[in-house]
Structures are given as structure tokens and as C-alpha cells.
Amino acid sequence: MLVNLKTILSGLNQKAIGSFNIYSYETIHGVCKAVEKTGQPAIISFGASYLNNMSLNTVKYIVEEAAKDLPADVVLHLDHCKDMDVIKAAVEAGFTSVMYDGSALPFEENVKNSRTVANMAHSNGVSVEAELGSLALGEHSNETDIDHGEAYTNPDNAADFVNMTGVDALAVSIGTVHGMYKAKPNIRIDILKEISQHVSIPLVLHGGSGTPEEKLVECIENGIKKINVNTEISQYTVAKLYEIITEDKNVHLSKLTLLQSDIVSEIVEKYIRLFGRI
Ligand SMILES: [Zn+2]
How far apart are CA 169 and CA 122, in angstroms? Predict the structure, then answer.
């Protein structure tokens, strides 16, 4: 069943939920297969940067159909969106969660816009994620090509931000990057602990790809409830498909599309098990 982010995050206890980027029929089915196999929930995340791949309505129809017989709930989430009109269209299309990304804006402007989105989305039963602080740009990132540089989330500002906006989840910057790491990751668990002490809503970690597993577990133990994974799913799937095509250049496209869903589900399953620690 499709539920909103607030509902799914409220039932998590000491676990986190994976948010997996989709941009095609095959990637949607890959995530749903992993939910079917594990019996655990997942967030199906459509980045505003993939609007050339699929329309909001197409995503909604395919997800709705794919999710209806699953053994666990899923959230249909709009990832990283700065455009109010696109956010409004996603809410109207039936997305159950949206992320407003005002992280590059001055604090007051980010507060004002995040609050506007929260008011609009909440009146439609839709959850809202916002972001404070900014992540550095790693290698092969597909989230954005603009590097705003790394700015850790300030714990005091985070508390004010949450109180002033009424958002349901807060994406924080504690040393992860969008894409793959260019150097050894330096995840600031100390900053996360401080944010957790100041903020009572669930915290979100962007840049899960390539983050050492023990660090991800430590993040979950210290308040992270939603973890985004994008680049690693793409790299894993492309590498496997390359092997298949190299072995058999005459492989039929219809078979490749099925294999693509299976490969996506393998890597998504790995993360669902790790985040749910099952
Ligand atoms: Zn992100």
C-alpha cells in the first residue's frame, strides 16, 4: 500500500528505511521486487532531475500498480526539488511525500519556502522533507552538477528550522557526499549526535552510496531514519549489464529489461536488510 513518509517513519524503532531512486519501469520494479523478497518497506524516490525520463503521472500510475500486492508499505517520494510548481504537481499527481531542497538558500529563505511547502502538502496528507546544510559533490553524482560545497548542519539552527517550518523529516549534512567519495569518508557522528539531541523529528542521510556499512549502522543508532541511495545502484546495475552484453551481443532487449529489474533488486535488497538490520 502507498503511505506517506510520516506514517512509515513513525513505526521504525531502531531501524532506518532506504530511499531508492527510480527513473524507469525497470527501476520501479527492481525496488518493488526487493520489498517483496524482504517483506520490508521502502521509499520509491523520483528525483525532480529525472522529469525527462518519466512524467509525475506515469510514475504514480506504475508505482500504484506495482505496489498494490506488496507485503509491506511503500512511499512515493519526490526527491530534491527546488521548484514549487513541480512540488505542487507531484502532490496533485498522488505522490505521498515531497522534498523541498532550499539548502543553497539563506536560512530565512529556506525556512519561508519549506514552511510554504509544508502547509500546502500537509493539507493534502502529504509528508515533507527539507534540508539544512549542504553536501559536497562526489564522483558520478546524478543528483546535481552544482557543487555548493560541504557545510555541516548547525545543530542549534536545525532545532529552530524544524520548529519554524513544521516539516516531517530533516536532511542533514554530516560528511556524506552526493555520488561516490573522492577520498576516505569522514562521517561526523559527533555532529549527528548533537543534532539528534536538539531535533525530535526523523533525520535523513543523503549520499548513502559508498558509505562504509559500519558508519551507516552508527548513523542509524544516532537518529538517522531515512537513507538515500542512488549512484551505487546505478553503477552496480550498469556493470552487471555490461558483463551480460559483453558475453552475448545478441541478447534480446526484452530479456535485458527483465534482467535489469533483477539486478536493481539485488542491490536494493542488500540495503533494505542493512538498514532494517535483518
Ligand atoms: Zn540527495
Answer: 13
